[in-house]
Amino acid sequence: MAESDWDTVTVLRKKGPTAAQSRSKQAVAAAQRRGEELETSKKWSAGQNKQHLVTKNTAKLDRETEELHHERVPLEVGKVIMKGRQDKGLTQKDLATKVNEKPQIIGDYEAGKAIPNNQILGKIERIIGLKLRGREIGQPLEAKPLKK
Hints:
By secondary structure, this protein is mainly alpha-helical. It has helices at about 20, 25-35, 55-65, 75-85, 90-100, 105-110, 120-130. Helix 4 (about 75-85) packs across helix 6 (about 105-110), helix 4 (about 75-85) packs parallel to helix 7 and helix 5 packs across helix 6. The chain is elongated. The termini are far apart. About 10% of the residues are buried.
C-alpha cells in the first residue's frame, strides 16, 4: 500500500468538444490562433425545406413541355350511358351493382370525369345494350353470332 498515492488523479479519457461546440465561431477562432488546419464549407439552403420550391425556371419549363394529363371519358359517352340507363329504368346505384362497381364510378362516367377503363365500359355496354366505344357510339349493341 505504500505505492498508492491518493492525491494523484489519472484521467483515462477526456471528451472532445461536441459537434455544435466545434463549429462555433469561438472554436474556429481558437483553432486559427493555434495554427490548426481548418476546412469550412457552406451548405446550400441548409436547414431549410427547399426541395419542393417552385422557381420561375421550373414554372417556365412546365409551360414549355407537353401537357401531361389523363384522357377522360368524352361527355358524349356519358350522355349515352345516362340515356341507356334511364331507358332500362335503372338508377346509377342499380347499374353500379350490375357491373360490380361503386355508384360514384357510374356518376363519374356520366359526368365525363372518369379515366376510361375498357373492362368497365364493356360491362356497361352489355347491360344498357348501347355501344360506348369506337365510331358507332350510341348505336344498339349487336349480339355476335357464335361460330361453330
